[in-house]
From TrEMBL, chain A:
This is Hydantoinase/oxoprolinase family protein. Residues 523-675 form the Acetophenone carboxylase-like C-terminal domain. One of its GO terms (biological process) is glutathione metabolic process. One of its GO terms (molecular function) is 5-oxoprolinase (ATP-hydrolyzing) activity. It comes from the Bacteria. Residues 12-184 form the Hydantoinase/oxoprolinase N-terminal domain. Signal peptide: none annotated. GO terms for cellular component: cytosol. Residues 205-493 form the Hydantoinase A/oxoprolinase domain.
Automatic annotation (TrEMBL), chain B:
InterPro entries: Hydantoinase_B, Oxoprolinase-like. Pfam families: Hydantoinase_B. GO terms for molecular function: 5-oxoprolinase (ATP-hydrolyzing) activity. One of its GO terms (cellular component) is cytosol. PANTHER family: 5-OXOPROLINASE RELATED (PTHR11365), HYPOTHETICAL 5-OXOPROLINASE (EUROFUNG)-RELATED (PTHR11365:SF23). Residues 4-525 form the Hydantoinase B/oxoprolinase domain. Coiled coil: none annotated. This is Hydantoinase B/oxoprolinase family protein. Residues 541-563 are annotated as: Disordered. One of its GO terms (biological process) is glutathione metabolic process.
Length: 693, 563
């Protein structure tokens, strides 16, 4: 691990999204920043990468830190366009990945399809068996393994998954099998299930390994290509890659951690939100990332994004690695509004997508969307539409909203547009409410941090709906994921299933297992060689009462495993969360988790502050009528770059910047802080706003 | 009172959210794996006057779509002495119930000192006493053999739990120690519902919420009517068959006559078989709910409230096994009979609206129960294993494999967890080749699994279906493969006389059970199947026994048995 001062250095964060690739550069020495946005180049993603760097106007050789988030893997899995994988598994169980847990795609309705990640002809069995206690029931048939590898190679497999029952309890067979496969296999794309997660549940562990194998060849060849081209262009340092857990890793270990890159872009956004809020002195934040097709919600508690290991990437595609817990609902700027056959107004989940997009983009869209409603109500500037750069066809929008919403509901066009926004806001708020409550939080203890191009348009309304007192709009809502890349620490997670009653455990055993996991993490950090300030190790316990299925996760307190502390914490958690205590029941330690974090010195976010405000209330750049509540307000329009530390704007107001539009509703007021954030008090002055109306 | 479209949508979602939060608390705190892992529970809000469903959790078990309002109706009829803070406990099948294991709680909800509605939930308890562990018997001839029957009694009176009653209940069920946790979970869910509903009423006002509920009901009704109007007027008939009632080895017929008139649809089940001796009788609430559920599967977009059912008319099928009276045994009603009722409705409507229908799914909960004593842990256990099967081909694709019962949404338990909890080794869990019915869109595949008892003795019972007849295809598609059970004791193979049902099979160390679950029916003639799909299926070995197919492991086992 190198030790050096990285505060005065140049850091670049790059987030490759589905439509755009975002760049942000922070120059610690001069205290400046630059941003860029280029279309994602689907053919060769590295083209867009290098083009963006050119637009940042920085010599690659001058960059000290380059951190990259990518969705290359996520989409490959979702579209079943991953690498051709083969599976070698326990005799009798080759269909586990196809049969899943006996579910169906929808609660009601019996239609729908499912394609497993590895097709059946590429799933082969070998004789071997280990039981639930990790005892060998049948030895591994090594000759069968060799034969299976040869067959998979003949069938054109690019990567191989070794997945045996109960490998979490005893990985010996998986290890030996993988060893044999690696002797024969021509490349590094071989994974044994327990190497990714050592956790019980064969379908979930197998699916996680299959996701890993499906994207490993894609992610590694992509990262290799980027690294090579960067090197050619003069970049001399390490290429770092974001992970779904909100940490980063060195490109050299991406192969063995390929599954961890899934959803890393959105994770980086939440991480940035947590860091921005922490710098601004706000610990509890709910993030709302609204783009064109979806709204991503996550919860940050005491400055830490909530992590989960229970995500499904899609129907019957579970991924059980620790990820920042992001919940997605199908409501974005492009979500289509319609009246259903019961006469109910619905918004989403169908989306106009990025092409043709909303009617307002003028590219042939015919269905009214949330963005169109915002244009009609004056919230988005119709003369500078982000998606098209041109003028929005307001008359077309009016006609569509009138025909498809207004007339069926007997409302005039403006009221219909407002109804679309109100229904959307309610959906978004409901999603936040359910997610925060599911995690045991009262949303009123949180500030809302909106980002993404469409997030700040609706944040005040959502906050009011939920009773959140404050909205914190970061300086660059449209570049949050790219920024998150720069702010991340190096992070690795480990898990092992224990599944033993707490009172039957020897503390020394648990301490030894935890120490082993910590050591594995530290070794990995050493190998990566990323410069870090300190190394932090955290242990957590997944617990339940014997007979239950849902675990609760509690952090370890104290230096070693103490059953009494764990039991007391568990009782307290139950009392607080569900209002019940269960003294009759037997507590069980299901999994032990270890997180090893190489803490980096972070760039100082104060460089986003525009310096002392010139005047408390900045000059407006324009004025236009905007519809709020039940009527039009003559509303001042400001430019974000005119704000300084201490700038104050009372609603109704619109603040425009390149990557988003902030709406400050009547009765709310925004103040810019030293970090360039705009903090909106949603109930600043309800009374006086009414009076001046 | 007119209500604006936005407020209406907001209240609709608000009521839904109250139910979802109840479901969530119920599920997360439960001990019964059938509730927490298999989601066999339901929570909802029901009308004050007549128990009509106002809202019900979308994550609840589908069979309860129509059951819970019947339960609430029975409680209203039986108990006029309810007070704020009371919670009623009930599982009586004849009073708006299903089987005894579905234990319901009903709580009158008071707003500002006045009764306003009912909150109710149901959770599947792993045991409620009776002749077989787990309650899924297949040979009872009266309800008293099936377990503890609880009429609507006050479990909680003005906030105070009746500990004597709890003792009485717990003394009559197996593995009772975890049930106090389930009782608390169920009460906690109702309390959560009460808090959230109070908040909703505080925010929007009683009058607005009441107006919204009435409006939402009308709109669901309108939507369902518009769907029914699209079905050509006329009469449609179909029959679905149960293998047997478990006691008399002869099939039972569910015969449905459907009459569509404009926007109303009538279901007459009166040509069905008479009441049966064994536990395959269905109580009225289950039968009615099954018809509602079939319609909800065909038209899933209609929001769930009483309005959704208004255009659906079901004649009470008095004199048939679908309208059971005391003391007829009913253990199979929710898990099996209801699925045959659903199937009969799907089959009847398949010719009328082929572009909305699916061929018959496996349509059984496929319950294997094993109860025994594990000498290694020194503990008794009851293992439930519900298996899935193939779904029917549908208008644009093949059926999925290993789908869950149509009346459920429960996940099966992982092999690794089953082997940890019980003294068994599962030697195979595989796709059952060739089990999907052929068709333009073929049925999905069933499952083959084999369970070997490692230690001690155990008693096994089976409550499955489609052993005699495979799930039928529609529009010229073939039927899926029927359910098969094999039991090997001391090296000797048997199958239950009733094919898919049987109980009291005593197993010793090394004995094993193999089950092959049904595949789904095919959609449309097999001759119309696209050649590339046939080639794909061939490549994947879906219709032959490739490596890992039935031959290899089965032979291995035979060798072991004979050795």
């Amino acid at each position: 691990m190198r030790q050096e001062d990285n505060v005065s250095q140049i850091s670049v964060g790059v987030d490759v999204g589905g439509t755009f690739t975002d760049f942000i550069l922070l120059d610690g020495e001069s205290g400046t920043w630059r941003t860029a946005k280029v279309p994602t180049t689907v053919g060769d993603l590295s083209d867009g990468f290098l083009q963006g760097l050119r637009e940042l106007d920085v010599a690659p050789s001058a960059i000290d830190w380059l951190v990259h988030g990518t969705t290359a893997g996520t989409n490959a899995v979702l579209e079943r366009k991953g690498a051709v994988c083969g599976l070698i598994t326990t005799a009798g169980f080759r269909d586990v990945l196809e049969l899943g847990r006996r579910t169906r795609p929808h609660n009601y309705g019996l239609s729908g399809s499912f394609e497993p990640l590895i097709p059946r002809n590429l799933r082969l069995e070998v004789p071997e068996r280990i039981d639930a206690h990790g005892r060998i029931v049948q030895p591994l048939d090594e000759a069968a393994v060799r034969a299976a590898v040869e067959r998979l190679r003949e069938m054109g497999a690019e990567s191989v998954v070794v997945h045996f029952l109960h490998a979490y309890a005893n990985p010996a067979h998986e290890q030996r099998c993988a060893e044999i496969v690696r002797e024969i296999w021509p490349n590094g794309h071989v994974v044994a299930g327990h190497e990714i997660i050592r956790e019980m549940r064969e379908f979930e562990r197998g699916s996680t390994a299959a996701i890993h194998a499906a994207i490993r060849p894609i992610v590694t060849s992509y990262i290799d290509r980027v690294a090579e081209r960067l090197k050619d262009s003069g970049y001399a340092r390490q290429l770092l890659v974001m992970q779904a857990n909100g940490g980063m890793m060195d490109a050299s270990v991406v192969g063995e951690n390929a599954a961890h890159t899934v959803m890393s872009g959105p994770a980086a956004g939440v991480l940035a939100a947590a860091e921005i809020a922490r710098a601004a002195g706000v610990g509890n934040v709910i993030t709302g990332d609204m783009g064109g097709t979806s709204y991503d919600v996550a919860v940050v508690v005491d400055g830490e994004p909530v992590i989960t290991a229970e995500k499904d990437l899609a129907y019957a595609v579970p991924l059980r690695i620790p990820m920042i817990d992001i919940h997605t609902i199908g409501a974005g700027g492009g979500s289509i509004a319609r009246v259903d056959s019961a006469g109910m107004l619905r918004v989403g989940p169908d989306s106009a997508g990025s092409y043709p997009g909303p009617i307002g983009y003028g590219r042939g869209g015919k269905e009214p969307t949330i963005t169109d409603a915002n244009l009609l109500l004056g919230r988005i500037n119709p003369d500078a539409v982000t998606g098209s750069g041109g003028h929005a066809p307001l008359q077309e929008i009016e006609a569509a909203i009138d025909a498809k919403i207004g007339r069926p509901l007997s409302m005039d066009t403006v009221k219909a547009a407002k109804a679309v926004i109100d229904v959307a806001v309610n959906e978004l708020a409901a999603a936040i409410r359910l997610i925060s409550i599911e995690k045991g939080h009262d949303p009123r203890d949180f500030a809302l941090m909106p980002y993404g191009g469409a997030g700040p348009l609706h944040a005040v309304e959502i906050a009011r709906e939920l009773g959140l007192p404050r909205v914190l709009v970061p300086r660059f809502p449209g570049l949050t994921s790219a920024l998150g890349c720069i702010l991340a620490d190096v992070r690795h997670d480990f898990v092992q299933t224990v599944n033993t009653p707490v009172r039957e455990l020897e503390s020394a055993d648990v301490d030894r297992w935890l120490a082993d996991q910590a050591k594995a993490g530290k070794t990995l950090l050493e190998r990566e060689g990323v410069t870090v300030e300190t190394v932090e190790v955290r242990h957590e316990f997944d617990l339940l009462y014997q007979g239950q299925s849902h675990v609760i996760r509690l952090p370890q307190r104290g230096a070693s495993f103490d059953p009494e502390t764990v039991l007391a914490d568990m009782t307290a958690h139950y009392q607080e969360r569900f209002g019940i205590t269960l003294p009759e029941m037997v507590p069980v330690l299901v999994n032990i988790r270890t997180t090893v974090i190489g803490v980096r010195k972070r760039p100082d976010l104060a460089l986003f502050g525009g310096g002392e405000a010139k005047a408390e209330v900045p000059d407006a750049s324009g004025q236009r009528p905007v519809y709020f509540g039940e009527r039009w307000y003559d509303t001042k329009v400001y430019r974000r770059e005119d704000m300084g530390d201490g700038s104050w704007i009372a609603g109704p107001a619109i603040v425009e910047q390149l990557d988003t539009t902030i709406v400050i509703d009547p009765g709310a007021a925004g103040r810019t802080d030293a970090f360039g954030n705009m903090i909106i008090d949603v109930n600043a002055n309800a009374a006086s706003a009414e009076a001046s109306a | 009172m007119t209500i604006d479209p936005v407020t209406l949508t907001v209240i609709e979602k608000g009521l839904q959210q109250v139910c979802s939060e109840m479901d969530l608390v119920h599920e997360k705190t439960s001990f019964s794996p059938v509730i927490s892992e298999a989601f066999d529970r339901s929570n909802g809000i029901y009308g004050l006057a007549d128990g009509r469903v106002i809202a019900q959790g979308e994550l609840g078990l589908p069979i309860f779509v129509g059951v819970m309002q019947e339960t609430t109706r029975s409680v209203i009829a039986e108990r006029q002495d309810l007070e704020d803070g009371d919670v009623i406990l009930v599982n009586d099948p004849y009073l708006g119930g299903t089987h005894l294991m579905d234990v319901k709680m009903v709580r009158p909800f008071y707003y500002r000192g006045r009764p306003w509605c009912y909150l109710a939930n149901t959770g599947h308890w792993p045991d409620t006493g009776g002749m077989v562990p787990g309650g899924f018997n297949s040979t009872a001839t009266e309800i008293h053999q099936e377990g503890l029957r609880i009429p609507p009694v006050k479990l909680v009176q003005r906030g105070e739990m009746d500990d004597d009653l709890v003792k009485l209940v717990l003394a009559n069920i197996r593995v009772a120690e975890e049930r106090i946790g389930d009782i608390r979970a169920q009460i906690a869910a109702l309390a959560t519902g009460a808090r959230r509903l109070t908040a909703l009423l505080d925010r929007y006002g009683e009058e607005t919420v009441e107006a919204a509920i009435a409006e939402l009901e009308q709109r669901s009704e309108r939507m369902m009517r518009s769907h029914i109007e699209a079905i050509p007027d006329g009469t449609y008939a179909a029959s679905a068959y149960m293998d047997s009632d478990g006691v008399v080895n002869a099939p039972l017929e569910v015969a449905v006559d459907v009459r569509v008139e404009g926007s109303d649809i009538h279901f007459d089940l009166s040509r069905s078989s008479p009441p049966c001796q064994g536990p395959m009788n269905s109580v009225w609430a289950s039968t009615l709910s099954a018809v509602y559920l079939a319609m909800k599967h065909i038209f899933p977009d209609v929001p769930l409230n009483a309005g959704c059912f208004a255009p659906i008319h079901v004649e009470p099928p008095e004199g048939t096994f679908l309208y059971a009276h005391y003391p007829r045994p009913v253990a199979g009603c929710a898990a099996e009979v209801s699925q045959r009722v659903v199937e009969s409705v799907l089959l009847a409507l398949s010719e009328a609206i082929p572009d909305r229908l699916f061929a018959a799914p496996a349509g059984t909960s496929g319950n294997l129960s094993m109860g025994g004593f594990d000498p290694e842990t020194g503990r008794s256990y009851i293992m439930y294993y519900f298996s899935g099967g193939g779904y029917g081909g549908w208008w644009a694709g093949d059926g999925i494999s290993n789908g869950c019962s149509t009346i459920g949404i429960s996940k099966s338990q992982p092999v690794e967890i089953l082997e940890q909890r019980y003294p068994i080794l599962i030697e195979q869990f595989a796709l059952r080749e060739g089990s999907g019915g052929a068709g333009r869109y073929r049925g999905g595949f069933g499952v083959r699994y084999r369970v070997r008892l490692l230690r001690g003795n155990a008693k096994a019972s089976f409550l499955m279906e489609h052993g005699r007849f495979g799930p039928p295809g529609i529009l010229g598609g073939d039927a899926g493969a029927p359910n098969v059970i094999r039991i090997c004791r001391n090296g000797e193979m048997t199958s239950p006389e009733h094919l898919s049902k049987g109980e009291g099979y005593l197993l010793g160390e090394g004995d094993w059970i193999e089950v092959e679950t049904p595949g789904g029916g095919g959609y449309g003639p097999a001759g119309e199947r696209a050649p590339e799909l046939i080639e794909r299926d061939r490549l994947r070995g879906y219709f032959d026994a490739g490596p890992g197919g039935p031959d290899a492991p089965a032979n291995a086992t035979t060798r072991k048995e004979s050795a």
